[in-house]
Amino acid sequence: MGYYIIGIGGSGAKCTEALIHTLAALPVKQPVSILLVDPDTANGNLARTVQTLDAYVAARSAVLGEQALLKSLLKPTDPRVWTPFADEPRPVFRDLFQYEFLSRRHPVAAGLMDVLYSEQEKTATLDKGFLGHPSIGAAVLADSADLISEHPWKELCNTMRNDPQAKVFLFGSIFGGTGASGLPTLARLLTDHLQDRREQFTIGGTLLLPYFSFPPADDRSQLQARSEEFVLRAQAALGYYQDKLDADERSIYDAVYVLGSNVPSPLGNNSLGSTSQRNPAHYVELYAATAALHFFGLQSASQPRTFLTARANTSLLTWDSLPDGFALRDHFANLARFAYAYLGYFYPRLREQLKTPGFLSKNTSWFINIFERGQAKNNYGEPLEHLADYCTRFLNWLDALHRTNDGLTVGYFDTSTYAVAQNAVTFPSGASTGFQRLYPIADRRLSRTFEELSSAMDRQNPRDLSGNSDFGRFAGSLYRECRAI
User: Fold this and answer.
1) Which residues lie closer than 8 Å to 85 by C-beta, 6 or more apart?
2) 421 has which bridge partners?
3) Which residues partner with 436 through β-bridges?
4) Superfamily of domain 3-89+128-309, CATH level 4
5) What pLDDT, in 10s, does the model give residues 254-299?
6) Does residue 316 sit in helix, strand or coil?
7) SS3 of 254, please?
């Protein structure tokens, strides 16, 4: 059995980012293959997700063999991102379908295109995505996605074909362009391609309703996504999916999860795509990640069921507002405490040890026991940085999650215990006590300060530590002292 994630468009990439962090905290036993789909390969949301995925893979490799930390096996495709415009630097819709040739040789086909698409749509340049027009995206994706011979579709589909219990999950929105066109089109292409294996795999997906908004662009004449149209677009899309789910024949999707916010978070700017489209994390994306976990755990799709989730408090989002929230809380708290302690105390000291040998070895038992008496001595610089990179991205994401501006307070963690500036994490002078405020817990066995953590690690028996390297054993030792479960 394997799990397969396809994140479509900017929102799909952000949900994938949330899932990466969720799987870092709450491991799954099956390998998770991840493919991102976006015509706008310079999209800032997409770039951040790719960087997070690569950072996780590198950090996991750095601690490989440790029994508890970063155990989920995430397998990015090669390439990480599939775009329908690999050979077209500035694709124009009408050129992709050879409109001029059709006008000369097949005027009826050209006339049909004239009926279906406006002149503005036909002449649109699509290097920044489908610009909120799923009718464009559906045509392009259906024509260009080659699941038989194109990388990475070929490898992904071959793996699915040989997997007797594949679970495929798609992330995307239904109110924009790329996600709204990709969710039905790519799911249909997959089920058609694997039709002879249809009983051996299940397919699910999130239908993201509007959960953010942005002001109109300065140039209203330009083809673009318009947030004031999101609700109408989502309403029309829901009607389509309802018709498909009510059909007598087996639906493309075995399970769908409908998620959104009744008060969309306003973004400060309107980006038409590319690197400037870099939106902060949102709690709806964490809900989407939990939807994927729920889908992975479904035993059978033979009996249609409806699952509902809701929050009790209309102004505060807490762990009991999330499906299986308290289990998530404990695992997220373990990882958050680890990342906080690693970046706030242990990482800078180990870096200083590399620059100034002897900085730690004189009076730090955990360093002597793990590193000085280990096989690698001081050869831990690269894994040190890999783990710091992922932990920084995790705490950045966690901080952004708590900064929604839709009137709802997110109360998972006290992220005021650290600061984020220019994607870097910094710690105030009281960071040692901030460790216990990040997520308070009434377990007296858990260390309350950085110094207590260090002393607890001093008392550990090195023979009890697991890991394929000295650094892996160090990370496992620290994680053991940071976890409450």
Assistant:
1) 39, 91, 126, 127, 144
2) 424
3) none
4) Tubulin/FtsZ, GTPase domain (3.40.50.1440)
5) 888 999 887 777 765 545 444 556 788 999 999 999 999 999 998 7
6) strand
7) coil
